[in-house]
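Hi all, posting the design record for the shared folder.

TITLE: backbone redesign
STEP: 1 of 1
STRUCTURE INPUT:
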């Protein structure tokens, strides 16, 4: 990036491969022959994500309509099975896990997955789980397809479609998908200490805004790395990066990152510009304007008074502005 560029000029990948439960795209594959179309996924995210759909229950040959499946806990809750209420009842747990294995093996380029909430196959957070006599044990289980995906790829950005209605969760998921894509498509194929250091330089303020503790760990990790340890260091770096980005930001933590960025402009701004920027950062901190407002001003000023280090920060533009994800932050 040259000094005349800003992070807002960053060209983003065309469409990023992301897995999705087929019923969210309007496919009539649910047990009752219906779909569960997600307007946000279909109408908005599909412009940015190359959706690869999967219906694990159809993939194991259950057909539609079909008898429902339930999660059933046994062995004191240590074992959870997906049982189809057929006559006799049928355990489809292994089949659902095998579909997850096939999806991950066949589509190694996936950068995230959007799943249907409450499903005993696809649900991630709040799936009803029963005891062996049919009594409801709790409603915080995980569908067995989703569980296997996360067991195999614990860092993969995975979210439920219903939770994407929350602007913070939505922003956080998209952010992690873009970071995952850049890591696997730009950094890993050309892994070197220099490239890893440059990658970290771009993500620093974003990580600072999300998780200051991780921000402080990464510098020493890279500083102590020897050439032979590079693969292990990169693996640890990426685990910490994804952990940090999954941590929600607050107005306070974003303000902290904005103020750090402001430091790179201080000597170049005239008194009016300085005052205007400080006012917008304060208004953001107090909750009267969204994050996009001080960020737009910051980007404008960095275009006018470029600084190589500040201009490259992912914090300025981690994904396309058109997604409007920082209008509610
Ligand atoms: S929730 Fe999952 S298993 Fe159920 S219909 Fe949708 S894609 Fe298929």
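Okay, here is what came back for every position:
SEQUENCE:
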């Amino acid at each position: 990036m040259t000094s005349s560029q800003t992070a807002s000029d960053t060209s983003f990948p065309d469409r990023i491969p992301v897995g999705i439960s087929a019923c969210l795209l309007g496919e009539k594959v649910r047990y009752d022959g219906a779909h569960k179309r997600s307007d946000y996924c279909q109408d908005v995210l599909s412009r940015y994500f190359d959706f690869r759909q999967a219906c694990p229950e159809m993939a194991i040959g259950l057909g539609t309509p079909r008898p429902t499946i339930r999660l059933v806990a046994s062995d004191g809750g240590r074992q959870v099975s997906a049982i189809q209420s057929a006559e006799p009842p049928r355990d489809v747990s292994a089949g659902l896990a095998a579909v997850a294995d096939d999806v991950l093996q066949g589509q190694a380029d996936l950068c995230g997955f959007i799943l249907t909430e409450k499903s005993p196959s696809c649900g991630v957070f709040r799936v009803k789980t029963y005891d062996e006599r049919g009594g409801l044990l709790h409603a915080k289980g995980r569908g067995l397809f989703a569980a296997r995906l996360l067991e195999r790829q614990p860092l993969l950005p995975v979210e439920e479609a219903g939770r994407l209605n929350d602007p913070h969760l939505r922003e956080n998921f998209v952010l992690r998908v873009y970071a995952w894509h850049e890591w696997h498509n730009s950094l890993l194929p050309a892994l070197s200490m220099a490239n890893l250091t440059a990658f970290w330089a771009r993500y620093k303020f974003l990580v600072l805004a999300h998780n200051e503790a991780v921000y402080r760990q990464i510098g020493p990790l890279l500083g102590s790395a020897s050439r032979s340890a590079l693969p292990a260091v990169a693996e640890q770096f990426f685990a910490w990066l994804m952990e940090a980005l999954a941590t929600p930001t607050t107005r306070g933590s974003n303000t902290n990152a904005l103020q750090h960025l402001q430091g790179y402009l201080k000597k170049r701004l005239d008194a009016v510009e300085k005052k205007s920027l400080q006012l917008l950062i304060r208004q953001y901190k107090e909750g009267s304007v969204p994050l996009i407002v001080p960020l737009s001003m910051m980007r404008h000023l960095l275009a006018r008074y470029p600084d190589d280090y500040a201009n490259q920060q992912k914090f300025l533009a981690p994904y396309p502005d058109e997604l409007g994800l920082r209008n509610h932050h």
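COMMENT: The chain has twelve helices and nine strands.
Let me know if anyone wants the other runs.
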